[in-house]
Hints:
The structure is a homodimer.
Chain A: E1 4-9, H1 38-45, E2 55-59, H2 63-73, E3 79-83, H3 89-101, E4 108-113, H4 121-130, H5 132-136, E5 140-145, E6 156-159, E7 170-176, H6 181-190, E8 193-203, H7 204-214, H8 216-227, E9 230-232, E10 235-237, H9 240-243, H10 251-256, E11 262-267, H11 277-284, E12 289-292, E13 295-298, E14 303-307, E15 313-317, E16 322-327, E17 330-335, H12 342-351, E18 362-365, E19 368-376, E20 379-386, E21 394-396, E22 400-408, E23 410-415, E24 418-423, E25 427-430, E26 436-439, E27 446-454, E28 463-466
Helix pairs in contact in A: 1-2, 3-7, 3-8, 7-8
Amino acid sequence: xxxxxxxxxCGGAGTRLWPLSRQSYPKQFSPLAGADSLFQASLTRLTxxxxxxxxxxxxxxxxxxxxxxxxxxGITPQAxxxxxxxxxxxxxxxxxxxxxxxxxxxxxxxxxxxxxxxPDAALxxxxxxxAVPAAQGGQIVAFGITPDRAETGYGYLELGGPLQDxxxxxxxxxxxxxxxxxxxAAMLAEGRYLWNAGLFLxxxxxxxxxxxxxxxxxxxxxxxxxxxxxxxxxxLRLAPDAWDRAPAISIDYAVMEQADNLSVAPYAGRWSxxxxxxxxxxxxxxxxxxxxxxxxxxxxxxxxxxSENDGQVIxxxxxxxxxxxxxxxxVLIAHKSRAQDVKQAVALLKAQGAGQADTFPKxxxxxxxxxxLTIGDRFQVKxxxxxxxxxxxxxxxxxxxxxxxxxxxxxxxxxxxNVTLLTENESVYIPLGATHRLENxxxxxxxxxxxxxxxxxxxxxxxxxxxxxxxx
Amino acid sequence: xxxxxxxxxCGGAGTRLWPLSRQSYPKQFSPLAGADSLFQASLTRLTxxxxxxxxxxxxxxxxxxxxxxxxxxGITPQAxxxxxxxxxxxxxxxxxxxxxxxxxxxxxxxxxxxxxxxPDAALxxxxxxxAVPAAQGGQIVAFGITPDRAETGYGYLELGGPLQDxxxxxxxxxxxxxxxxxxxAAMLAEGRYLWNAGLFLxxxxxxxxxxxxxxxxxxxxxxxxxxxxxxxxxxLRLAPDAWDRAPAISIDYAVMEQADNLSVAPYAGRWSxxxxxxxxxxxxxxxxxxxxxxxxxxxxxxxxxxSENDGQVIxxxxxxxxxxxxxxxxVLIAHKSRAQDVKQAVALLKAQGAGQADTFPKxxxxxxxxxxLTIGDRFQVKxxxxxxxxxxxxxxxxxxxxxxxxxxxxxxxxxxxNVTLLTENESVYIPLGATHRLENxxxxxxxxxxxxxxxxxxxxxxxxxxxxxxxx
Lengths: 472, 472
């Protein structure tokens, strides 16, 4: 069995699964189908026999979420590359290849999105291993999903002839863009088109040759971004100036559509990109109903009802082909046929200045997370959770005082130079202007209630003096 | 102009407008159509020239809500009668009549539900005044609404012949129960049937005669309940043992359907009982859409989208004939044709043990209200608002300690005999077992954040030593 390095791309921030997926915490980090997040499920699928530790490519604002979710699974990545800005998959895959080339140009890399569902991990691993000889023989292998419907939402991979049951690697003739309904139906009938899942296997040296041939400009920019990358708390920050010279383009456009050493590995197992709520319904429905959380349906058919919060019930009555997703700060109700238009809804909310378009009430930080429980005139109450070993920056505020009450765990509090240990049921007052820091020196999370009072309570009223996470 | 005493019934707790209407805070106390609650709109409509101070009949658990909402309008009732248990409208109207008989048997009383919408208050008052001579002449006058559709959800009043435009009082021939669709259509075509709005005008002495004739058993029970009523902080608590002997029956069944001195006063203005969400949609829609709160609709038709919380957006896409009501703890989505089945949904939730079936996160008390902001393992955070002059009972807890932080106003805190004044940004710790009290001695509401810690955090861990509201 050959060892393959998974390259997992998790820098995207789609909005078609709003309100669950938002720019501040996109869908790959949420448990959309199962107990783990999609990113975690992807990692788990690509761990074990035949797989080396993964290379993860993500965006600056998701770096701590990604690390924390890997940590929860006990997975230590080979590297976490930080894209200074989103430039689509072309530069991301190239950066990973250039990084791997430093240690092993013959390494096999499997490029995988982090937000897809592939329930049969064993069959998938087997399919990947079966493609290794082709990749080692110089082929760029794309994995193609056997279609079971005339889907207009995906691109297609074209084979020379109809796919036989149990067929192995075949030459890839061409790519087909997202088709219209008639074309999709015709392709389904012809039987020689597979869905393009964005999953690719190749060796580092072969893909670098392909980039050099088909996207030489990108190579110069990304090579510099990798060479000048800054090591920062275990992250590899690609150099922003060089990176920004790389075009924003997918690997499909930049390389695949130009290359002539292409193969397809057919995958007959179940797969979904969970691209919209209709796809989530399709993947999770049982007898037509997809219920999640405290959700109840009376006489509903072909309907998805999700509550993303244990304390919020959702009740459907007499619904047909409805998607409803409830969160404490935002509720979506759409006809299933309009699932693609959720994007448009998010744009509308953004135009209205509604924070729910982008942001969750729960804000993830390197040290843990916080959420606002209530905001009033001149006061705000937050719940703050600090991971074991986490520490907020040493900071002060111009416009607010804070009361902290520890309700779980043990906190170390620094206030104007005095350090005290606070345990459950103890509290401390941080006067306006005081230099303070909150740390969790223990082994269990600290849960703290913070009541702020003052004339201005924005997150930007902060002066940072020291920060173990090297934030400004 | 004659002076009429409005008798406003607000003891009911309907569930067909769940999640907005729940047993703990039913629809009449919510602002369903307009800025004031339905109860407040009813009071306002029955205030001014021609109306005496109202008599309000309500249930024990709503007494402070009713008083507070009257107080907000500057209305002082003649009396607030507390029904020990709900016995429908028959005993409630009788109790009000017996109470009024003590001061003036000739008084005119207008019985009015508290949860209906009658936008044209002037036309309504004029219609009521026009019915006074008939009532003074010994008639029991029912107000009948000119129907504009074949409604199956209401009872009907039957006239001797088709109603003429601008017609006045006419003899009432009979009552028709809620009809089926065919019968409703036939009655609409015939033009001599009006909706029974549950609005009645009569003199105290005439209605007492009617009760004595047609419901003598009820008179004995209710007379005793009124005679033995206990005056309690401005409320008149009907005596529970006697009251419970009265049958649970509507005034329509108990008296009206037997009496022969009946008249109808036609009312041609707009009216709705807001009996279900379809009715709320009908009353509040504009171009087919009924939007309330931060609600957004993309390509929706004949749809109601309500958010009952400023911090919660609701977004509809491509919906037709959908009712959606969002609250932070419960979301309803129903086909409009199924609005009547919300009752069934509430029963289902109740059977599942979901607190949302009956109870709001916000809990109203005589001194103000509180809501739980977050509940965790061994801790809970509440926001507590104490009205000016309000005082919680002197109490202690076996299983929890409390931290209080004042974020608005000034609180007087008693803790084991020590009294301190706490103002904004000050906090106090109430140890487990300490006898304590919270009061608002000031002129503005006190807003307090309470963090509780302990092994058991239920509302029933309370020992009350003194209570200005005479609660146990």
